[in-house]
C-alpha cells in the first residue's frame, strides 16, 4: 500500500486530515513554481509569442494525453477545455446528432444535477419532441429501450459513491442502438477506467477533484477514435476549426479530437493541471484502487464500531463503491462543520449526507483512525449542537 502513498508531493496544512479530495484535490508541491514561471517567464517575457514558444496552444491536447493515459484512452482521443458542464452538453449534443431518428436522452436520478440541467437545456433548445428521461440508478439497465438516442450516466454517484458497471451498461446501450456517454468526474484518478474496453462513444470529466488540477481546472472530453472525425462538436468555436488562423468566415470542424476545442484555453490553469499530471505518470491505478478500498473498509469498520449515530449511505460492497464513503445523519451539516473546525475536512450534500473521500496518495491508515477519533468525539459529545454550525455557506 505504501507504494502509492506520496504525502510529500502535496501541500497540506498542519493538523488537517483531508477527506475531501473528491471535491477539490489538494495542491501538488510543484504547482506554485510552475504557475509563477508561466506568469514571470512566459506571459511577462514572451507576451503573445507564448502561444507558440511556450506551447500554450498545444497544451489542451498534450494535457489531454496525460489524462487519457489514466482512463485507458489512446493518444489523441482526449482534449482539455471549458468546464465539465460544457463538455457534458457538447458530448450530449454530438451523441444526439448521431441518432437522428431517436428523441430520448436517458439518465438516472442520482446523476449530478448540472448534467441533468444541461440535458434539460439541450432538449429544450432542440424541441421537436426531444426529452430527458430519468430513472432510479438501479433501473437504468431495464430502461434502455430502442427510442433512446443517448444514455448519459455518471459512473460514481456524487452522494453515495455507488458505482455503475461501465462495460455492462455500455454493452446494453449498444445492443439497443443507443450512444453511450460516461461522466467520469468521480472516476478519473479515483478508480481504474479502461475506455477502450468500455467502448463508449463519449466520456467527459473534471480535473479539480481527484486529479488535483486546482479550483476551476479545465475539463476533459474523450471521443472514441473511430468517431473523432465524424462527431459534430455542437459548440463550433474557432479553436475547433480545421484552421483557426485562416479566419474563414464559415465553420469547418478540425481533424480528430481537436474539433472538440471551443475557445482560448485557460493557460494558467492548464499549466497548474499539467504540473499536477506529472504526479500521475507513475501511479498504478490498480494499486491505488486497492489502497483506496483498504482505507474505506477500515473507515467503515471503525465508524460502525465506534459511532453508532451514523448510518452508512454508501454500498457496503467495496466493488460497488467509488473512492468515497458517505454516512447519513439528520444533523449532517452541523456535524460536518464541527469536524472541519477540528481539522477533519469532508463535506455535506443535502439532505443528510456526510461525505468522506479517500485518496491513498496522501492518506494512510493512521489518518483514518485519527479522523474516526474526531468523528466519535463530535458525535458522542454532541459537539455539533452549536448555533455556529447551523449557518450554511454558499458552498457546502
Ligand atoms: C463535479 C461535477 C460537475 C461539475 O461541473 P462543472 O461544470 O465543472 O462545475 C458536473 N458533473 C458531475 C457528475 C460532477 O461530479
The proportion of residues forming helix, as a percent range, comes to: 25-40%
Kindly name the structural category.
alpha/beta
Mean pLDDT: 97
Compute the number of strand runs: 15
CATH topology annotation of the largest domain: Aspartate Aminotransferase, domain 2
What does this structure look like?
By secondary structure, this protein is α/β, with parallel strands linked by helices. 35% of the residues lie in helices and 14% in strands. The chain has helices at residues 31-46, 50-53, 59-70, 84-97, 113-126, 140-143, 166-175, 195-198, 267-280, 285-306, 332-341, 365-380; strands spanning 10-11, 17-18, 27-28, 78-80, 104-108, 131-135, 148-154, 179-183, 202-205, 220-223, 311-312, 324-328, 344-345, 347-349, 353-357. The strands form 4 sheets. A 7-stranded mixed sheet has the order 4-10-9-8-7-5-6, with helices on both faces. Bound molecules: pyridoxal-5'-phosphate.
